[in-house]
Amino acid sequence: MAQSQSTTTSAREVVEPSGDDTEFVFFSGKGGVGKSTVSCATATWLADNDYETLLVTTDPAPNLSDIFGQSIGHEVTAIDGIENLSAIEIDPDTAAEEYRQETIEPMRELLGEEEIQTVEEQLNSPCVEEIAAFDNFVDFMDSPEYDVVVFDTAPTGHTIRLMELPSDWNAELEKGGSTCIGPAASMEDKKQDYERAIDTLQDDERTSFAFVGKPEDSSIDEIERSASDLGELGIESQLLILNGYLPESVCEDPFFDGKRADEQAVIERAREEFDADATATYPLQPGEIAGLDLLADVGGALYDGREATVDVGTATDVDADGAADFDSMADADAVVDQLTPGEETQYLFFTGKGGVGKSTVASTAATKLAEAGHETLVVTTDPAAHLEDIFGEPVGHEPTSVGQENLDAARIDQEKALAEYREQVLDHVTEMYEDKDDTQIDVDAAIANVEEELESPCAEEMAALEKFVSYFDEDGYDVVVFDTAPTGHTLRLLELPSDWKGFMDLGSLTKGAAPAKGDQYDAVIETMKDPERSTFAFVMYPEYTPMMEAYRAAADLKDQVGIETSLVVANYLLPEEYGDNAFFANRRAQQAQYLEEIRDRFDAPLMLAPLRQDEPIGLEELSAFGEEITGLADVVEEDAPEVTPS
Predict the structure, then answer these.
(1) pLDDT digits 0-9 by tens, 521-573
(2) CA distance 72 to 63
(3) Sheet holding 207-213: strands in order across?
(4) How far is CA 292 from CA 62, 82, 375, in A?
(5) Element of type H or E holding 377
(6) ArsA/GET3 Anion-transporting ATPase-like domain location, by residue (predicted)?
(7) Which pLDDT score, from 0 to 100, does residue 177 have?
């Protein structure tokens, strides 16, 4: 099937430069959807069409080097065999450290050691890492030597909203205060650069925004949310690329023929519903896309209207013999040990990037634990919050039954959580100031500053975390299953210093909002660190980007918070009973290769979950799916332990 596009604008018109000034193309999308492949193919196509092109990635798991077959790294590098094309892989850790040093150095002659230490603590905020990445965007958005700059991984609405804090820069700079992204004074030099960069992002004559996703309903839902978030900031999405649909020629049995029909329905839905100037598609290949020939094929299909090439009958360089036995890689007994509660409440955290199936896996685990007689609560902190769709029952802000004995569910409503959090913080600040007899304090101004900080996306994370913490006080459950665990990024917000000078930051407000709040946070994090009480499971599918993103997130949790990964879930494994041809043999061999690498990278038991014809909906299907997932079928009914509430 050739590329599909809207009738009004072609994908080519979206990405091809049309003026004398440097233009920018941003590709956004979750890990594992082919965003880097599409970015590389687009940059290659532009260079082949005689545009001087720079390709930039800020992806924490970059694979440009693998795609082009040469070392790239943190410096601008010419791409071999392609005139007009250079690339750079920005290292997020290096960028963050460079940003911290650039911020601190000018202050060393002006501030004492204690004040410098305070600034260094502020700059350990996880928000600073996002600012550092944006800082690099700003650098490359002033590149007149290029006709076009292609960004693999666009700044999110979350990041751009950070750039708008505080909205009254001048007042904050004059006051010399702090924000959740560091000392306001440190941003004085950056103010105009950031404003100019945001103006450029909002200028659709110079900037094109493209989303890459898979032909799955959950992927489209997530893209629509992200696009809406950006739209509220004045950034319009012009291109949607749906990558990895099943080629018709390889779907020779009812299982894959049905999967393909579902994908085509999603593509049709996306064309009708998603508000983009153009839509384009590219099929799934038997192996990973690398090398100039395949990149040229992708670019030709997306931008020249050529038929995509799928070499169905040729083996890749993956050893097909390695695909024989997925089951031998799993340890069902070890999985059961991680899931089964002891004498105290057990907490299970299923985490991973969007689209890896963590909500389904978490709900399936909760269903099987409840069947085994354990009083179980499943909670989602995912903004998509589609537990209702999975269970086919209403799921609200407070725990309610979903129609099975021993099983309750709840979802954290972001708006309600934020409203509760705002009220709590503002009440605390008002109470804190009302008894102070200090004429130098402008109470109204202080409260106005706090209200402004509560518009930060950090406040949304803190509000969700506040509600999340409350579920550790739920009495009577043997097991609490969390769909989407807090990341190292979120947990580090709790570690922000509690006595910042000048401006009162979110961390101090949160820790001071109630007398026992700091102790409560500490107790929850200690419980999460305890492998006897908590199981952290990363859900992924066996491909490079999902694996590396999970690996990096797991390392962040361990290094920053001290939480170890105790279980890995490999989802969407191709079933051996279907797809009896070279195409799927190659895909299985590739999955086997990555399963081995997952085992090497993660020192944790492996839970395996097969690809299904349809996502399981309702308790009966969830129970049946649980019988297919490694370990869940072995969670046997027993006398539920007497629970000691935490």
Answers:
(1) 778 888 989 999 999 999 999 998 889 888 988 988 888 888 999 999 999 99
(2) 10
(3) 77-78, 85-89, 53-57, 148-152, 23-28, 207-213, 239-245, 278-283
(4) 18, 9, 55
(5) strand 376-380
(6) 22-304, 346-505, 518-629
(7) 53
- pTM score: 0.82
Tokens standing for 416?
Answer: 């309600």
Place of tokens 């950006």: 230
Ramachandran region, residue 616 (left: φ > 0; alpha: ψ -120 to 50; beta: rest): beta
Given the structure tokens 């079928």, which residue do they identify?
633
CA 428 to chain centroid: 33
C-alpha dihedral (366, 370, 376, 380), degrees to nearest 10: 20
Distance CA 129, CA 91 (A): 11
Q: 605 is written with which tokens?
A: 């038991």
Whole-angstrom distance, CA of residue 637 vs CA of residue 369: 8
Strand, coil or helix: what is 515? coil
∠ CA 567-573-575, nearest 5°, is 140
Three-class DSSP category at 281:
strand
First to last CA, the chain: 56
Decide if 632 contacts 481 (C-beta within 8 A): no
pLDDT tens per residue, range 223-251 = 898 898 888 888 899 999 999 999 999 99
Question: What are the start-end ranges of the E strands in 453-600?
Answer: 479-483, 534-540, 567-573
How far apart CA 36 and CA 34 sit, in angstroms, is 6
- Average pLDDT, integer, range 438-459: 69
Asked if residue 239 lies in contact with residue 16, where contact means CB atoms within 8 angstroms, the answer is: no
Three state DSSP letters for 414-431: HHHHHHHHHHHHHHHHHH
Task: Pick the range with the lowest mean pLDDT from 49-53, 320-324, 374-378.
Answer: 320-324
Q: Strands, DSSP E only, in 502-566?
A: 534-540
Bond preceding residue 215 cis, omega within 30 of 0: no
Closest CA to 143 of 28, 54, 18, 14: 54
Long-range contacts of 95-101 (CB under 8 A, 24+ apart): 95/58, 95/129, 95/132, 95/133, 95/135, 95/136, 96/128, 96/129, 96/132, 96/133, 98/132, 99/123, 99/128, 99/131, 99/132, 99/135, 100/128, 100/132
Give me the amino acid identity at 280.
A
